[in-house]
Amino acid sequence: MATRLNPYLSFAGDAKQAMEFYKSVFGGTLTSHTFGEFGGAPSEEYTDKIMHSMLETGSGYTLMGADNPPGMEHRPGTNFSVSLSGDDADELRGYWEKLSADGTVAVPLEKQMWGDVFGMCTDACGISWLVNITGTDA
């Protein structure tokens, strides 16, 4: 799989409805996983909330989204990140090192409960980045 760059949208509890709306607009295949599916629901009310959703269209568009977990502020207008994902661990770790170097790391780049290596940071320019390395060991 090639490395891809795409927008990642954050929602205040309505990610499922929003991603279904975008599917109705762009078509394609929508996959969604709840916090409860991975045993990572921070509370009972989050069991059915979306932990990760991805819409891939026939036109080559990829749009990702999720519900904000408790403790993460939802700020409309700034509720997006840029996602880098793929299976080239060296390439993605290189991007991570540069993006996080003078920024703030929210989630260290490490193995997560769903099996991938993942991290979140805000770069020195104030842009939020999500880096996901598919199917790698920590």
From TrEMBL:
Glyoxalase/fosfomycin resistance/dioxygenase domain ranges (all copies): 4-129
CDD domains, sorted: PhnB_like
Entry-linked InterPro entries: Glyas_Bleomycin-R_OHBP_Dase, Glyas_Fos-R_dOase_dom, PhnB-like
Signal peptide: none
PANTHER family noted in UniProt: PROTEIN YJDN, PROTEIN YJDN-RELATED
Name under which the protein is recorded: VOC family protein
